[in-house]
Amino acid sequence: xxxxxxxxxxxxxxxxxxxxxxxxxxxxxxxxxxxxxxxxxxxxxxxxxxxxxxxxxxxxxxxxxxxxxxxxxxxxxxxxxxxxxxxxxxxxxxxxxxxxxxxxxxxxxxxxxxxxxxxxxxxxxxxxxxxxxxxxxxxxxxxxxxxxxxxxxxxxxxxxxxxxxxxxxxxxxxxxxxxxxxxxxxxxxxxx
Length: 192
Prior knowledge:
The N and C termini lie close together (about 10 Å). The chain is α/β, with parallel strands linked by helices. The strands form three sheets. A six-stranded mixed β-sheet has the order 4-3-7-8-9-10, with helices on both faces. It has one domain: Rossmann fold. The longest helix is centred in the N-terminal third of the chain and has 14 residues. Strand 7, helix 4 and strand 8 form a beta-alpha-beta unit. Helices cover about 30% and strands about 35% of the residues.
């Protein structure tokens, strides 16, 4: 998606360790108009695919998923929580994921009443690097007996291989911006 790639070039900051900061528009300050265009693009890419729920993970995926849901007939957005709280009651699906940016593992929890065997789920997230977060979300969907119909990613770091692994396993991954190279010295970004 050219609009997203242009915005990454304009406001993204490449840091050492394969880190791309996009907090000016994606995951700290949110550009809602851009999110709306992203949602419309995912709706175009997944047109005709039966989707009745969108699943994401807190916190950065929530805004993107909520705006995108409007383009899928206002389907509910379910988000996996990264910590147990008193607000989580009843039975739950849970797994553990490793965060590339936080360099640690997190528990990931979804209440069982929000995912069921008849659900057709689109997973949406802001980044795809190694795929660990997505593997956790896929495990939760499969534990519920639901179907992963597709995965929508804002920015994929193609050089880290997570997307390729998911595609090899048969998952449909649609990334709106796919980076194949980043140089922290020059700030140069290369898109597929």
